[in-house]
Amino acid sequence: MQAIVLQARMDSSRLPGKSLLPLGGKPLIYRVMEALLNVPADLRILACPEDSVLEFAPLAAKAGFELFAGPKDDVLARYCLAIKKFNIQRLIRATGDNPFVFADAAIALNNEALALGADYAGYSGLPLGAGVEVVSASALLCADGEAVSSYDREHVCPYMYNHPEKFLLHRPLAPLHWQGNMRLTVDTKDDYDRAQILYSELDLYGKERCNGEVINKAYKK
Q: pLDDT tens digits, residue range 68-121?
């Protein structure tokens, strides 16, 4: 089984409650899930800490995501507990501050990872906030058993790509039409203000608003 696992939490020191801030009339975290619906998967999971369940549960249900609660700061463990519960073999990792994820790039990366049998795959050169990571469950479980630093456990994937002797990595430069020196993530008030403007522009494109080339074009207007 292949799953999309989206990690999110309610608290944020730089932009408190950002997951529920409105973006185009719906909460930001819902817009992230909405974008990820354009990426094929057997299962979609919103993985959050226990203290976010109350706020996220109705949004996950509306978007067609399973809700899974796990450790707050040990996000690697949160992923691995979800892997075990849902019997996941491969997963696409996404984060809750990226409402403009490039769905078409995620599909392409996943296809490349599957063809190569990669343990870890991620494009370089994408705008900040546009990408996902594709990971095998066995690699994540291995990392969970070996990673000890708080950084590796909070950020999930560094242990894998920092140990190329253990894992088969696929980290190519993204195709040129997806590249860009742009900031699409929402981490600060300035990011959020920019996201509101960009989403209004993208709303004109309908379903194509999750296409990387369309987002690049709208951002540069």
A: 999 999 999 999 999 999 999 999 999 999 999 999 999 999 999 999 999 999
Question: Which bin fits 117, alpha (ψ -120 to 50), beta or left (φ > 0)?
Answer: left
Those residues with Cβ within 8 angstroms of residue 2's Cβ, 6 or more apart along the chain or in another chain:
41, 42, 43, 88, 89, 90, 91, 92, 110
Report the alpha-carbon distance of residue 150 to residue 164 in Å, rounded: 20
Report pLDDT for 210.
86
Q: What tokens does 109 get?
A: 């990366």
Report in angstroms the alpha-carbon separations of 114 from 49, 51, 65, 109, 137: 30, 35, 23, 9, 13
In 3D space, the residue among 50, 51, 52 whose CA is nearest the CA of residue 29 turns out to be 52
Residue 28's alpha-carbon distances to 34, 35, 84, 100, in angstroms, are 10, 11, 28, 10
Q: Is 180 helix (H, G, I), strand (E, B) or coil?
A: coil
One-letter amino acid of 201: E
| Tokens coding 187 | 């981490």
State phi, psi for 164 to the nearest 5 degrees.
Answer: -65, -15
Report CA-CA distances (Å) from 31 to 35, 194, 195.
6, 15, 11
Among 36, 44, 32, smallest CA distance to 2 is for 44
Residue 89, helix vs strand vs coil: coil
Is the distance from CB of 94 to CB of 33 less than 8 angstroms?
no
Q: What is the homologous superfamily of the domain 2-219 according to CATH? A: Spore Coat Polysaccharide Biosynthesis Protein SpsA; Chain A (3.90.550.10)
Q: Amino acid identity of 217?
A: K
Q: Residues, the chain, total?
A: 221
